[in-house]
Amino acid sequence: QVQLVESGGGLVQAGGSLRLSCVASRNSLSINAMGWYRQVPGKQRELVATLTSGGVTNYADSVKGRFTISRDNAKNTVYLQMNSLKPEDTAVYYCNAAIQERTLIYTYWGQGTRVTVSS
């Protein structure tokens, strides 16, 4: 198991930047992949960015070139640097961890951190 604690959300004007952090309760090297998802009321949670333990990244088309996911294994932390923010980036952002144990993959979620981008 792993507990995830996000921080860094807040209110920012369009064009601004924020950095989200997610601290894992276990060695992040033992986590197969970590990522960020977001959700707005009435819509499904959607992928924003993921990063595997091998360093492979994946981004939603809507954030490519603006957001960067990274991790600091020494701090068991994954970051999401968000630049050139748009009002449509407003959502609750959730940290996710995927851990494979034998043939099963377990997923874990943080409590979420709210990002509001004003126009």
Q: Briefly, what is this?
A:
Helix content is 0%, strand content 56%. It has 119 residues and is mainly β.
Indicate the structural class. mainly beta
The Cα radius of gyration reads: 14 Å
The largest sheet is: 7 strands, mixed
Q: Could you list the spans in which at least 5 consecutive residues all have pLDDT below 50?
A: none
The backbone outline, from C-alpha atoms, is globular
Number of helices: 0
Please describe the topology of this protein.
Blueprint lengths: L3 E4 L2 E4 L4 E7 L8 E7 L6 E7 L4 E3 L7 E6 L4 E6 L8 E11 L2 E6 L3 E6 L1
Parallel strand pairs: 2-11
Antiparallel strand pairs: 1-3, 3-8, 4-5, 4-9, 5-6, 7-8, 9-10, 9-11
Question: Main traits of this protein?
Answer:
four-stranded antiparallel sheet; seven-stranded mixed sheet; 119 residues; globular; mainly beta
Textual characterization of the structure:
By secondary structure, the chain is mainly β. The protein contains no helices and 11 strands. The chain has strands spanning 4-7, 10-13, 18-24, 33-39, 46-52, 57-59, 67-72, 77-82, 91-101, 104-109, 113-118. A hairpin with a 4-residue loop joins strand 7 (67-72) and strand 8 (77-82).
